[in-house]
Amino acid sequence: MSHMLKKLTIAVIGACAIMAHADSKLGPYAPVTDARLTNPEPSNWLMYRGNYQGWGFSPLDKINTSNVKNLSLAWSFSTGVSEGHQAPPIVNNGYMYVTTPNAQVIALNAVTGEELWRYKKEIPADLLMLHNTNRGVALYGDKVFVGTVDSHLIALDAKTGKVVWDATVGDVKALSYITLAPLAAKGKIMVGSSGGETGVRGFVAAFDANTGKEAWRTYTTAAPGEPGGDTWPGDSHKNGGGSVWITGTYDPAANIAYWGTGNPAPWPTEGRPGDNLYTTSTIALDVDTGKIKGHHQYHYNDAWDWDEVSAPVLIDTEINGRKVKGAVHAGRNGYLWMLERQSSGKIDYVNGVNYVYNDVIKGLDKKTGRPTYDMSKKPGMGKAVSFCPSLWGGKDWPPEAWSPKTKLFYIPANNHLCSELPAADPAAYKKGDLYIGYPIEGVLGSLRYQGGKKPDSIGELQAWNLDTGKMVWSHKYDRAIWAPLLTTGGNLLFTGGTNDRVFRAFDAANGKVLWKYNMPSGVTAVPSSFEVNGEQYIAVQAGWGIDAERMQAGINTLDSTKTAVPQGGTVMVFKLNK
Amino acid sequence: MTSKITSSASLAHCSGCDAQPGCADPSRRDALKRVSLGTLSSIPFWASTAHAQSAPLLLVDADAEKDFKPLRPDDLAIGKPLLVFPFDPKTGAPKNESRLNKMVVIRLPEDQMAADTKARSAAGVLAYSSICTHQGCDVKTWMAKESVLACYCHASKFALFDSAKVVSGPALKPLPAFALAMEGEFLAVVTGSPANQGS
Questions:
Q1: Which of A15, A112, A194, B117 could lock onto B113 through a cystine, CB 3.0 to 4.6 A?
Q2: Which of A304-308, A342-346, B14-18, B155-159 has the lowest mean pLDDT?
Q3: d(Cα B7, Cα B187) in Å, to the nearest integer?
């Protein structure tokens, strides 16, 4: 190489290095406005499911079915925390925010993985943690908001991580806690409560984004004198559960937020005859006032621990050949619910079809969708009862996805899993203790296979045509899945969820596996996608734990196996290999 | 009430004491301090200073709010765990200022206990911290078929017949074990517990 060529080569390399550095340098933080949240830029992932409608869809298409085979790890980052990581990497112009169990927030440069700041919530030493996970932050203005396992809502400065305000949301001594990503809209930050299994009365509460002052609080169990108050005997609504532990969806035009609610407490129904409104429902809340404008109860007087906490996905599409403003939910009760939103907030039933085996619900009322039960499949006092699907349902919290490109609705289901509960043994409510009503050894050992025989497949990634109410394709797994979904404009569907730690990309049109990657731990977190400097990335956290681990323990008992998935959180970010 | 401890788990009988930090001879007090400072918060606050107690601590039902009745072995049905707090007979009050002080006691057949576990028992009663070493939930569910105490939060299982070693689940460490003795007709915690925690 000549001297001149050497000089030139060095100069070019130097220029490239400077360019790369310039590309990865973060600009000023762009405040997150209502307008941006209503119409999020394709390059960003500004909230839990990418948009207010809850689609889990990124319009980005540079990574697509033809080149996904070249997807490679761009960078990874260990969170230093074990247990179940479930939060999506949320990205605003190169600023990435992830949360970990115990409500730690980490801000990262989305291109390089460089840590910008880290907020560690000081958790009370004696806190009893049933689910110590966290499902992400909300962005609004120049702040980052996180709900905590000791029931606080905290506003952090997006650039520095410094606490701006800290609001107490629930009574930690009663084991009220927060795991969901807050929902930000119209100057308010909304959160819900976990704690149905400890008798916490469920609620959604809104706080002023600037000050942290509580604006309103709406309980999900109706008190006497309120609409629905006659569906609870006596004071049973006061510890009646109906937790809200997954982020709501939002219709900005109607200013209505849709939330899913958990099961009533305690599990046995003998002490709470009635529909127990508004448990196991979706409720439509006016974001300005918190007033309940409408609801749909998926199943009444729940006895099966079938929380219906996933908020309905808001999809304007054709159902049964008619254009509707849809609200679609794959229920833990094993039914795919297609509902219609009215601008008043009223929610109408359109169609329901079971997407996994269900031996409890005999049928749905054609007008209202109200189910009819096989009462021999309703657990309670004095008898052991088996039922399908299991306590974890056809789908637990992992979110579904909708692609406006394929016009398919995707469900991460578990099929052929059932439960057997022993005779109920209810005890009086005691603050700070479990309020389940069954011997815990019975709950821990409740998992069963349908028909008592190990099925060929359990996990099913299903794609549904909402117009016809028919399944278009399914990918079957020989194991269970806990698989939050991401769809993209590149006609891809990304998810993990299996105990083999594999993160996969599917062709969204036909379910063919196009790419897979062995992760450090199992993936039960929500994936996201973003673009910086014209380059698309796929991001997700690995980190097995919580209910995926509990279900695995149940399967280990059934199969006499000792499968243990390694724990430990890692942020994993992928891009195309050039 | 006599202050003399008489038990199969008394200090003189504490099997394996030389290798364990929990027995209350002076040579092991430094080790006990290390344990108290260096391990998870699941070790009760009071345990780190237990060696300084002049009177033994008795046990009372953790649910009791008044009229505290120190526990006798016969108060426990075999295989029925009970959550308890240590109880100071001098003050007449349980040490319930923190739930981390909570213990689980259970009466089990002695012939199934490993030697060092048996040495910590009194009248067939075993005592462990009830705070799960994983995420701090109360561990109080006896699963007789598997001979384990299970945590309802994340299903960690502990072999009570064998020093509460982890059998399965996410917990990595055994439940801290407490040596019991008889204080007259009552169960009492032997000075210097917990006894199965490494430093």
A1: B117
A2: B14-18
A3: 10
pLDDT of residue B192: 62
Mean pLDDT of all residues in A91-117: 97
CATH number for B53: 2.102.10.10
Give contacts of B154 with chain A, Cβ < 8 Å. 545-546, 549-550
**Cβ-defined contact of A441 to B150 (cutoff 8 Å):** yes
Count of domains for chain B = 1
What's the CA gap between B62 and B96, in Å, rounded? 8
In whole angstroms, give the CA distance from residue A221 to residue A236: 9
We report the CATH number of the domain holding residue A470 as 2.40.128.630
Residues in chain B: 199
Radius of gyration over every alpha carbon of chain B, rounded to an integer in angstroms: 15
How do residues A470-513 score in pLDDT, each as one tens digit? Answer: 999 999 999 999 999 999 999 999 999 999 999 999 999 999 99
What residue numbers bound the domain in which A543 lies? 52-82+397-413+455-578
Q: Note whether residue A472 is domain-resident.
A: yes
Question: Could you tell me if B73 and B107 are in contact, meaning their C-beta atoms sit under 8 angstroms apart?
Answer: yes
pLDDT (average), residues A528-556: 95
Helix (H) or strand (E) holding A315: strand A313-319
Domain membership of residue B137 as a residue range: 11-189
Considering only the beta carbons, identify the residue of A430, A432, A441 that sits closest to B143: A441
